[in-house]
Design a protein that fits this description.
Rossmann fold, 7-stranded mixed sheet, 11 helices, about 15% strand
């Protein structure tokens, strides 16, 4: 059965989508079967794999709201992608009156878990019902954190949310690891932020640190991962390193 990992942080711009896609591709390089689930109405994960949301007749909205089998929205690319469109923005309102609304994604994933080694879920930059669905369906959470002080504060809010999820919906979900992203080694601020992370969260912090590079912005424009776009670059090597840590069972 697949290990289900959500990428979550209510702060936007911390490389959640970048990390979901590139960890997924790095895991496939190591022979693993990977499904990426786009739970963000912006559809950035979908588009970053060269899939045009405008051409999709069905999406994760239909899976969550109309109980469409998730197989019908999976598109094969570098990794398999359960695709999203802007329609997903209406899912929270549509689900709000349904019984078991927090478990819609968990139920949708059950039939395909045996086909994959990893299911990676990209979440929106909020702690609303879509993110709660992702956390309810997950075994663990990877938290990308930008290397600056303001980003560190969001971790505490996420921890409180996870505690509520464990008490009420999914007792097994834990932070699988904290991933420092957008690191600029030229700045003292960036280096200090990584140190603060390690001081406060210790073994939860991945050894991999993802540095800033323009290649991360260029790759999605080409509809590809950083591993395909710049296979020998520092960005690709960072996600290969992260994949090895994940496979080695890095967790609290």
């Amino acid at each position: 059965m697949a290990e289900v990992l959500a990428f979550a942080n209510q702060k936007g711009g911390v490389a959640k989508t970048t990390s979901t896609v590139n960890l997924g591709v790095a895991l496939t390089e190591l022979g693993k079967r990977v499904l990426a689930v786009d739970m963000d109405p912006q559809g950035n994960l979908t588009m970053s794999q060269g899939i045009d949301p405008e051409n999709l007749e069905k999406s994760m909205y239909d899976v969550l709201v109309h109980r469409l089998p998730i197989e019908e929205v999976i598109v094969a690319s570098e990794i398999d992608v359960a695709a999203s469109t802007i329609d997903l923005a209406g899912a929270e309102m549509a689900l709000s009156s349904q019984i078991g609304r927090e478990r819609a994604l968990e139920k949708a994933l059950k039939p395909v878990l045996s086909r994959y080694d990893f299911v990676l879920i990209d979440t929106p930059p909020s702690l609303g019902l879509l993110t709660i669905n992702a956390l309810a369906a997950s075994d663990g959470v990877i938290v990308p954190v930008q290397c600056e002080y303001l980003s560190l504060r969001g971790l505490l809010q996420l921890e409180r949310t996870l505690e509520m999820i464990r008490e009420n919906i999914n007792p097994r979900v834990r932070i699988r690891g904290i991933l420092p992203t957008l690191f600029d080694s030229r700045t003292l601020h960036g280096r200090e932020a990584v140190e603060v992370l390690k001081e406060n969260f210790g073994p939860l912090v991945f050894g991999t640190v993802v540095r800033k590079t323009i290649k991360f912005a260029e790759a999605p424009v080409q509809g590809s991962s950083i591993l395909k776009y710049d296979p020998r670059g520092k960005g690709a090597e960072a996600y290969r390193s992260l994949a090895r840590e994940v496979l080695n069972g890095k967790s609290a």
